[in-house]
Design brief:
Layout: E1 3-11, E2 19-27, E3 31-38, E4 47-48, E5 56-59, E6 66-69, E7 77-78, E8 92-93, E9 99-104, E10 116-125, E11 131-138, E12 154-160, E13 165-170, E14 173-180, E15 189-197, E16 202-208, E17 211-212, E18 228-235, E19 239-250, E20 256-261
Antiparallel strand pairs: 1-2, 2-20, 3-5, 3-19, 4-7, 6-9, 7-8, 8-19, 9-18, 10-15, 10-19, 11-12, 11-18, 12-13, 13-14, 15-16, 16-17
Amino acid sequence: MKTKNCLQRKTGSGLKGLTFAVLFLVSFGTFADVILETRIISGGDRKYVRGTDLGLIVNQPESVWLLGASWDWSKPYISAVWDPPGVSTNVISLGEEKTALGLSIVSTNTYTKPIQMRLTAIFEMTSRQNNVAGVGFWSELPPYENGHDSRENFTGVLVQEVEGTVQVYAAGARQGAAVYVKELSKNTFYSLSVEVDITTGTLLGFWFDDEPLEGLEGDFFTDEATAIAGVLSSGSSRVSLASLLLEGTFVPPDPTTLLLIQ
């Protein structure tokens, strides 16, 4: 919590030498605490991330990468410097389509899940077909089995590359109408942020390439629905993750006023 101490002194006009001191403890807005942060760097070999904390430089929940849906012959990996041109460096490739990749953010003995959170992912879509990428949360990941739907239990925002739209999902089902953002391209990195309040389940804000977007809303982002944070590919998509950042925003207590007499 960011605070400021203000000490004001006033001398009473009719009482010589009597000074009143009022101490204000004032809270300023909110503050952000980094819960998860990645720094993904390619090396001489592909590094498979499932069950590891590879690429994480901040990891308050002490999580490992979890894999859902996908295929048994394809596992997410940090790309190598020798990968073909279709695979970028310094990314986690989700591999085949229909892949869910996430990290647990439930409270532990040493970490408390924040009330308000902002999840930001930088990603690219690389399939020659219509790409669908998702950024958000799962109550639990879908089973790790061939061809399973990566959107099962997913609450977040899906990006449709061909249509240039975003769509809110809750518990694996679309909610409301899709909202147009702009013309999107393959092999281009985009940034998507969602800010939520898990006490009310409210979608507080949404940003695409750092631009706020109106028209998305919902009260689906509850504590239970946001147990795992991450990204997904759906349909026949190929998606790579360049960066994942989860910040916690805490609501400060009411200001406290203390009266001192000297």
